[in-house]
Amino acid sequence: MLKQSILPALSNMKDFERFLDSPYEAGVMLEIHLGQIKHVTKMANARNKKLFFHIDLIHGLKNDEYGTQYLCQEFRPYGLISTKSSVIQQAKKHGVVAVQRIFMIDSHAIERSFRLVEKCQPDFIEVLPGSLPTMITEVSKRFRIPVFAGGLIRTEQEAQEALKAGAVSITSSNHHLWEHFSVK
User: Fold this and answer.
1) Bond from prior residue into 129 cis (ω within 30 degrees of 0)
2) Which residues of 21-58 are buried (b: 16+ CB within 10 A; e: fewer)?
3) Residue 29: pLDDT over 70
4) Is 5 helix (H, G, I), strand (E, B) or coil?
5) Helix (H) and strand (E) counts for the chain?
6) Would you say 17 and 41 are in contact if contact means Cβ atoms under 8 Å apart?
7) Rounded to an integer, what distance in angstroms lies between the CA atom of residue 115 and that of residue 82?
8) Partners of 169 in the β-ladder
9) Phi and psi based region of residue 131 (left: phi greater than 0; alpha: psi -120 to 50; beta: remaining)
10) Which of 17, 60, 104, 178 falls 20 to 30 Å from 11 in CA-CA distance?
11) Residues near 87 by Cβ (< 8 Å), separated by ≥ 6?
12) pTM for the full model?
């Protein structure tokens, strides 16, 4: 189990390098090109860092079961994040931590997401937007699966509210939050 309040979300190589120099053990690679994964993985492993790859945002890789198999077999990431059930199932099959990303935009989207979570039984659920504490609490209690809160968390207070509501960690690209919640 991860023991950090913030999971730095890395959207470029500068963020990745900053993460490597940080005290954080794990981070989330957002947008990345398939050709960069080997280099990024090697650098992270050299620093004993764990990376979650958001497979839906990897350029040059189809986010389906075959793309997932390739990623898991070739690079052995710590974890994969996706909205797709086929990705979650393949990640779990390959022993990779699986994070089901769900969007709380309306009642229909919530019910559809809940059905996918029930079907896939991911290791973690990422709730977006993470600025909805009541939904974090509902998801956490309903599934008893650890919850990440992501998206639209801009302040320390919003992050604290998400954590208090039941999130085990906040995924954020906000460097101010990285520094405020930095692990010692």
Assistant:
1) yes
2) ebebebbbbbebeeeebeebbebbeeeebbbbbbbebb
3) yes
4) coil
5) 8, 10
6) no
7) 15
8) 148
9) alpha
10) 104
11) 55, 56, 63, 64, 65, 67, 68, 80, 98
12) 0.96
Strands 167-172, 147-150: parallel, antiparallel or unpaired by DSSP? parallel
3-class SS string, 64-80: CHHHHHHHHHHHCCCEE
Q: Cα-atom radius of gyration of the chain, to the nearest Å?
A: 15
Q: Would you state the structure tokens that stand for residue 16, as one six-digit string? A: 């990745």
Please provide the CATH number assigned to the domain covering 6-180.
3.20.20.70
**Could you state, in order of their start, the residue ranges of all structural domains in the chain?**
6-180
Helix, strand, coil % in the chain, rounded to nearest 5:
45, 25, 30
List, for residues 42-69, the tens digit of each pLDDT value. Answer: 999 999 999 999 999 999 999 999 999 9
Please tell me the total number of residues recorded for the chain in this structure.
Answer: 184
Q: Give pLDDT tens digits for 126-173.
A: 999 999 999 999 999 999 999 999 999 999 999 999 999 999 999 999
Task: Find the Cα–Cα–Cα–Cα dihedral 101, 103, 109, 111, rounded to 10°.
Answer: 60
Contact 82, 55 (CB under 8 A): yes
Rounded Cα gap, residues 149 and 159, in angstroms: 8
